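can u do me a favor
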């Protein structure tokens, strides 16, 4: 039997939950069962699959309180957990609405008059999903739902740091006969994730660049597709003409929502010199109004740092910045309260690109603000990164902002807003640099990632083709 893994509660610091990873042989058997069941699942057709997912949604709604409690214990925060469940349920409806049109076959004539073309698609039989701890429910299902509707079976391995939500979700799955053999969640750490890759036909991974590299190498060795959503160090550029009231509010939310524990958080802020002081003073004033969700979970907007190792990284980035001359205007340290790790919104100035806080992913509520002299300098600062997930640009007009946004190496850029990909999932995008690899997980393309295209080339006459050998 695999050694049990103890799980820490981020609010109390106590290890109050245990998971037992499956042995590799048992995991392989689970994937093989899913592979056999996928044949029936595909034959259900998209209407049958939509019906099954809607049935699952209803089963989840009856367990909503249990799922909320599990997510709260996993993450230590309440309001974001509620929002996470709402977003998950909405995504079921959204994909159920989109799938029937996206999965239509097509037929047309071709450039050769006597050759017709029919196009269809076939799903990858078994999809593996390896998901992180920062949004445990949402990021374990963001690929799962479109894959299921495409006709795939799915095996999900969530993070061992936040696994409590698996139990109520699995209870709901087991209430849907059509779904329970093609969707399963497995507990475990990196070793279980590695074993999962060996037993699937396609892998989706959300997490760090370091682990993403290992996933990519394992997938390449097995010769299967890998879709990787990795780290970010998202910049915001605030031009001289920007509305500072709007910019400071948007950037504050985009930087510290979920305590900054999001790959699409704003982690670097570049502001025109002429408005620099006014900008950061407004940002600091607004940051001071936010409170920790402690001692009561309803006390404030910011939950605890979920992963204990992340608390150390945040402290390290702040200390490195201060040692190199940065000035702290609010926040500025990780605190231990009631056994959990907490960090208040932190605004830093006098920062530069020698500091870790400007170059490495912090994953915390830290807002380093740096002045720029010219738009060209701002763009160079924004692109001076190994990451290219998303970004934000603020200006008086959409045209001015878009002119700058076109020059930024990132997959999605919010204009006069921040971190919009957390809210709006319709825009197709591809990450740049080390922030990801593979097709878009947003927009219609997200579902089509799970399909192999198949073409039927049909000769429509009984005449000899002009390119055949003349055997008469």
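np, heres the sequence
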């Amino acid at each position: 039997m695999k050694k049990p893994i103890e799980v820490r509660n981020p609010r109390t610091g106590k290890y109050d939950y245990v998971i037992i990873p499956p042995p590799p042989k048992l995991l392989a058997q689970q994937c093989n069962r899913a592979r056999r069941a996928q044949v029936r699942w595909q034959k259900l057709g998209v209407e049958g699959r939509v019906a099954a997912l809607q049935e699952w949604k209803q089963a989840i709604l009856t367990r909503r309180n249990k799922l909320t409690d599990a997510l709260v214990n996993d993450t230590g925060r309440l309001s974001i957990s509620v929002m996470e469940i709402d977003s998950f349920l909405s995504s079921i409806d959204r994909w159920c609405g989109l799938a029937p049109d996206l999965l239509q076959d097509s037929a047309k004539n071709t450039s050769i008059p006597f050759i017709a073309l029919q196009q269809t698609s076939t799903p990858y039989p078994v999809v593996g999903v390896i998901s992180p701890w920062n949004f445990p429910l949402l990021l374990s299902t963001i690929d799962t739902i479109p894959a299921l509707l495409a006709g795939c079976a799915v095996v999900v391995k969530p993070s061992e740091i936040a696994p409590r939500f698996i139990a109520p979700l699995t209870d709901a799955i087991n209430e849907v006969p059509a779904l329970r053999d093609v969707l399963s969640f497995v507990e475990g750490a990196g070793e279980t994730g590695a074993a999962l890759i060996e037993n699937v036909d396609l892998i989706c991974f959300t997490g760090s660049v370091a682990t993403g590299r290992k996933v990519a190498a394992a997938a390449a060795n097995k010769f299967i597709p890998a879709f990787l959503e990795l780290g970010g160090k998202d910049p915001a550029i605030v031009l001289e003409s920007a509305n500072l009231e709007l910019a400071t509010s948007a950037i504050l939310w985009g930087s510290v929502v979920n305590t900054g524990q999001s790959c699409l958080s704003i982690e670097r802020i570049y502001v025109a010199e002429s408005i620099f002081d006014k900008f950061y003073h407004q940002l600091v004033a607004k940051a001071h109004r936010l409170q920790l969700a402690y001692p009561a979970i309803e006390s404030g907007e910011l939950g605890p740092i979920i992963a204990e190792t992340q608390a150390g990284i945040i402290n390290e980035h702040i200390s490195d910045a201060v040692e190199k001359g940065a000035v702290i205007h609010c926040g500025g340290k990780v605190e231990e309260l009631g056994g959990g790790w907490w960090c208040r919104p932190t605004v830093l100035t006098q920062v530069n690109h020698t500091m870790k806080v400007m170059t490495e992913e912090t994953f915390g509520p830290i807002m380093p603000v740096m002045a720029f002299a010219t738009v060209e300098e701002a763009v160079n600062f924004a692109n001076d990164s190994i990451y290219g997930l998303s970004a934000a640009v603020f200006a008086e007009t959409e045209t001015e902002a878009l002119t700058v946004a076109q020059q930024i190496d990132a997959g999605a850029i919010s204009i006069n807003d921040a971190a919009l990909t957390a809210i709006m999932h319709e825009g197709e995008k591809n990450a740049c640099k080390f922030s990801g690899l593979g097709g878009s997980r947003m927009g219609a393309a997200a579902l089509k990632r799970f399909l192999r295209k198949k073409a039927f080339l049909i000769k429509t006459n009984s005449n000899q083709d002009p390119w055949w050998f003349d055997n008469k």
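The longest strand covers residues 115-123. hope that helps!!
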